[in-house]
Amino acid sequence: MEKIDITKQVEWAQKVAKINEGKNLKYAIYTMGCQLNENDSEKLCGMMETMNYCKTEKIEEADLVVFNTCCVRENAEDKLFGKLGEIKKFKETKGTIIAIGGCMMQEKHIVEKLKQSYPFVDIIFGTHTLHKFAEDIYQILINRKRIEDILDIDGEVIEGLPIKREDSVKASVTIMNGCNNFCTYCIVPYVRGRERSRSPRDILDEIQELSKQGYKEIMLLGQNVNSYLRSEKEKGIPFENNLLSKPSVSCQQGYTRSNSESEYEGVNSFATLLRAINEIEGIERIRFISPHPKDFTDDVIEAIRDCDKVCKFVHLPLQSGSTQVLNKMNRKYTKEQYLQLVEKMKQTIPNLTLSTDIIVGFPGETEEDFTDTLDVVKQVGFEQVYMFIYSKRVGTPGAQMPNQVPEATKHERFDRLKRLVESKIAQQNQTYVGTTQKVLIEGKSKNNENMLTGRTDSNKVVVLEGSEELIGQVVPVTIVSEHMWYLKGRKEV
Ligand code: SAH
Ligand code: SF4
Ligand code: F3S
Q1: pTM, full prediction
Q2: Which residue has a Cα nearest atom 5 of ligand 2?
Q3: Would you state the pLDDT for residue 247?
């Protein structure tokens, strides 16, 4: 676990802060994609704040606009190019600095297109160079010359970047980066590099600190969380291999130096990490995404059962219910193995609920294959299903496969799956009415200022009346009615 020395970055940030002092400069940020990207954006925001930029939601006010991009499906590209067209006028009228980073920037053909058709973009940075954002900004302020800061090699573990979090009750903590699985439809391993895990101590220290700040729920993030530390063990990398092996200290400007220690607090796997976080006082709930079914070992199942703070709600990506399609997807489990795993989990963990991801229209998917997917959905009874239409990604094996499914068939299957999922969710929602749920109150409802919103252990949104003081508390709530995407509740007195 080689860690990057960010001392130089602290200096760049200080220099930029000095240049910007007293100018009342603002930044706007657009984040696409998954929660890992959102967590990266919180770090970008942290860096920009230390450089004397303040956040604005209004793009026309911004002196610096950042896009943190995703490329998991094609529609993200259209979105980015559309937005860029919109902000070109701000560049022309007030010289707004435009920076684009994230997964899409690791795709060569996209960077080429940007350079040719959108030459007004100032900074292009990739997923392995996020920590150098202060340096990129400094260079652009001084030289006004376009910067392309993208690395092809796998990034290392970066610790100590400042962070400005979106929420005050729930916090995301990235525990690993990258992916080694190479599912044949997926671009992520190409743009995020190989798996590398943060050290147990750095993670536990971060969560201790979050607890002190009053955070109640921790969402552990990674592309394959249940293989946490596996790459390091396979490569024989000691958990301690650090450039900055000093105890955690605050540097100026919000950047901190990282800790390092081997096998801290007995953590040497995902299961032991869950157990260690469960001991942290003040934290009430622990969630994680995404685990891979093939790595769902018994020790993880037992840790979920034993740890009172770990939600009894697991996101278990299925992708397809057909063994033949799963095989072509390189998922390394069969329909039967998935169902057996669900059965074992349900038997071991009382009141377990599940959600999943499903792709329809993978190359070669027949009507029979699709029926298998519907069958698994019927059998498992997911609380939530995230459904995607297969999208060809340049450079992935799936894009080269024969028998690509026609668009019309993909859409027709998607609609059938959606109907089934919605009817199952409606049935499931019924079972909540009249029950009392423990709800973590997250804040005011976005649609109605006078209402509060929170979530059950099973991640269902609950809307209820109550005073603001309840925000951040877990309270018993009786569910009075159900709606497709939320439940209405009444706080028990
Ligand atoms: N690492 C996670 C999620 C990665 S991306 C996991 O393995 O579950 C999130 C979801 O996007 C995937 O689970 C998959 O359902 C979907 N997805 C990925 N590539 C896709 C593609 N090319 N077309 C459509 N959906 C895709
Ligand atoms: Fe993509 Fe598969 Fe890795 Fe998930 S596990 S990020 S779907 S390659
Ligand atoms: Fe998208 Fe990158 Fe996440 S491709 S889904 S933002 S890891």
Answers
A1: 0.94
A2: 181
A3: 43
